[in-house]
Structure formats: structure tokens, C-alpha cells
Amino acid sequence: STVIALAGAIALATGIAGAGASAQAQTSIVVGHTLSPDSHYAIGAEAFIAKLGELSDGSFTGNQAPAGQLGGERDMIEGLQIGSLDVVITSTGPLGNFVPEVYALDLPFLFRDYDHARTVLDGEIGKELLEKINGNQLVGLAWSENGFRHVTNSQRPVRTPADLDGLKLRTMENRVHMEAFSKMGAAPTPMAFPELFTALQQGVVDGQENPVTVITASKFWEVQDHVSLTGHVYSPAVILAAPSLMDGLTEEQRGWFYEAAAASAAATRAEVNRLEEAGVALLRENGMEVITDVDKAPFAKLAEPAYSVYTDRHGPDLVTRIQAVK
Ligand code: EAX
User: What one-character-per-residue DSSP string does 92-138 give?
Assistant: First the structure.
């Protein structure tokens, strides 16, 4: 009929007019994280947004929502599941509550060094765990990085497990970490990251544990005098997206998101490297007493029962496989 023919002609005309790049629809993506706008996560968020913009010829734009503006990491993961958030950079801290297999990555004294951790995450095991994440109303885009965690506190230098005795220590909302710290003698207090600075300032907790990256980005030296380089656990980060967002994309667009996440992880790891070099001097410059000569063996021995939080449910295979990676 005439009406249909007319509609067709209009569509054709619009299509031709729309062929210019500037006429493309724009989609704006928000990347949430808990850390400050100059942190290693912020650098990763900027890299993500820049790469996505470049690959999509500007059809995707983005902004970051830093500093827990969208909530703590557990809240943000829930936001992705219900589709109220787009993309989140988070530690694996609270992720085990949603994807229990991921607890394997948060076991104390498991990874020998950065090379070991990155090789595992970039290899077969990392891929398998991203797939487990994908089975839980989340999309795992790429492994990024937080860093090896160290204990800080306001009370005393920590050199041995005895120095942790009774220390009220904020941990992430992670059962493996809580079990490890209670076995090492501290009194673990799980808390979302956005509440932490105030809790330290008001003495609700005596200490906390985080990588140099986070201690620096959060200026914890304003509220903590002592840091011990316990390196008790490697803390991965992961770049997650909402399934509702990813499902609405074309295959090509989904590819851009994965590439943007890879660029983000690379930028974040480079910043972790930089701060691992500059870290100790930076902490000292800002007035912290840094204990560098920590004997890790007695901490590791006490923390070992925490492995059962993972192995009781899933067996020891994955742990053994991770340890075997060279
Ligand atoms: O992911 O909660 C924490 O201590 C994390 O290390 C922090 O939110 C960065």
C-alpha cells in the first residue's frame, strides 16, 4: 500500500542521512569503583572509557563514579546483577559471596609474587573463574589488580602474630580473610570500604589491611601510624559488567567492551608496578613507620586453616593447580 511504501522511503532516506558518523546514537557508560579519582582504579576506569570511545568511534562515551559514590563493592555487585549499574571495577573481596569459587583467589600466602598472580589470572585458571562469574548474573570482562595487602594500624608496629593480638582489624566482607585474621590473633571486623576511613579516624577499628595502592590513594597515613609489609594475601581486581547491558549489545560492541577492559587492566597494573617501586618511600614521607623485615612464615602457618573455607566445599584441586603454576 501507499502508506507502507511511504514509510519505506522515509526509512531509506533516514538511513542515508544517518550514514555520517556524527548522526550515530551515543550511549553513555558509568564505571563505578570505591577508590579516589587519582587511584589505580581511576586510571583503569579512564583507560576503559578512552578505549571504548576509540573502538566505537565515539558512539560509547563514559564517566567514572569513584570513591564509593555508587556504594561499597558488595552493593555495586548487586547493582550489576539487577541492571542498575553498567560497569564496576572491584576487588574480589566481596565477590566470593556471589561466586564462591572465587574465594580460591583470596587465600592467604597463596601467590608467590606479582608474576605468579598475573600468570594465573591471564591463563586457563583465570578464564575458568571468569566463566564461573558469568554463571552468576554478572559478566566478568577482565582480571585487573589491587595488589598484595599489608597490615596498618594505629596502636603498634606489627612484626609477629603476637603483635596482632586483640587488634580490631577491619577486613573486607570475605569469609576467607576473616577466618585467616582470627587465626592469626586479630579481631576481624568486616566493613564496606566507604565506611573505613571514618571508622579508623573514630577508633571504631584499630587497623585495616590493603595494598600500597589503596593506602596511598586513601591517605590512610592521616589515621594510621604503622604499616607492616605482611603481604599476607594477593588482592585481585575484576572488571564486571551488567548482563542486561551486555545482552543488549551486538557481538562487535561486546568485543569492544572486552578490549576496553583489557586496556583498563593493563593501565591499572602499570600503576600498581609504579607504586610498588615508590611505595615504601611514599609511606615514610607521609609519616608512617614502615616495618619491612616481616617474617611471613609464622603468619602463614597460623592462617592455613582459612584454606578450608574454600576446600571444604570445592576440594583442593584448584589450590594445587594455582600453586603449580610457574
Ligand atoms: O578494591 O575494600 C577494600 O579494602 C578494597 O581493597 C578496596 O575497596 C579496593
Answer: STTGGGT-GGGGGGG-TT---SHHHHHHHHHSHHHHHHHHHHHTTT-
**Rounded Cα gap, residues 106 and 97, in angstroms:** 12
- Chain centroid to Cα 266, Å, comes to 13
Tell me how far apart the alpha carbons of residues 170 and 209 are, in angstroms, rounded to a whole number.
7
Tell me the residue type at 23.
Answer: A
Ligand 1: nearest atom to the Cα of 94: 2
Q: How far, in Å, is the centroid of ligand 1 from the Cα of 82?
A: 22
Pocket of ligand 1 from Cβ distances under 6 Å: 34-35, 73, 90-91, 93, 146, 172, 193, 210, 214, 235
Other CB atoms within 10 A of residue 320 CB: 10
Which residue has the CA at smallest separation from atom 1 of ligand 1? 91
Q: How far is C-alpha 67 from the geometric centre of its chain's CA atoms?
A: 13
Which value does ipTM take for this structure?
A: 0.99
CA–CA dist 155, 206 (Å, integer): 7
Picking from 64, 70, 22, 68, the residue whose alpha carbon sits closest to that of residue 47 is 64
Read off the pLDDT of residues 224-254 as tens digits, 9 standing for 90 and up.
999 999 999 999 999 999 999 999 999 999 9
pTM over 0.90? The answer is yes
C-alpha 70/C-alpha 137 separation (Å) is 19
The atom of ligand 1 lying closest to the CA of 208 is 4
- Over residues 68-100, the pLDDT tens digits come to 999 999 999 999 999 999 999 999 999 999 999
Residue bearing the CA closest to ligand 1, atom 9: 91
Q: Band of the pLDDT at 3, cuts 50, 70, 90?
A: very low
